[in-house]
Amino acid sequence: MQKLTFFLMPTCPHCKRAEKWLEELCEQNPSYREIEIERVDETREKERAEQYDYFYVPCFYLGEEKLHEGAASLEAIRAVLDRALA
Predict the structure, then answer these.
(1) 3-state SS of the chain?
(2) S-S: 54 plus which of 37, 46, 59, 68, CB 3.0-4.6 Å?
(3) What is the dihedral angle through the alpha carbons of 48, 22, 80, 2, rounded to the nearest 10 degrees?
């Protein structure tokens, strides 16, 4: 299983919501807990964030594939996790 990379900013309300939904979904479906999620704070790791092609956070990559960018919904986060499990 590939690792998810989650680009975020600590002050971003959409990122905070995405974090909340990640927690909720992991409680609902324990198999989601098996997914390794690397969180990258783009304000602290600017050089690393610049290596990826995105403009908005939250942003999720599975390897080199961008799965989601920008404001998310619960269903969008679930789709990211489902893709990571596939």
Answers:
(1) CCCEEEEECCCCHHHHHHHHHHHHHHHHCHHHHHCCEEEEECCCCHHHHCCCCCCCCCEEEECCEEEEECCCCHHHHHHHHHHHHC
(2) 59
(3) 60
Identify residue 18 by its one-letter amino acid code.
Answer: A
Q: How many residues does the chain have?
A: 86
**Token duo for residue 29:** 């479906």
Q: 4-85 architecture in CATH?
A: 3-Layer(aba) Sandwich (3.40)
Distance CA 75, CA 15 (A): 15
What is the Cβ-side half-sphere exposure of residue 33, based on CA atoms within 13 angstroms? 7
Q: How far apart are CA 76 and CA 68, in angstroms?
A: 8
Is the pTM higher than 0.90? The answer reads yes
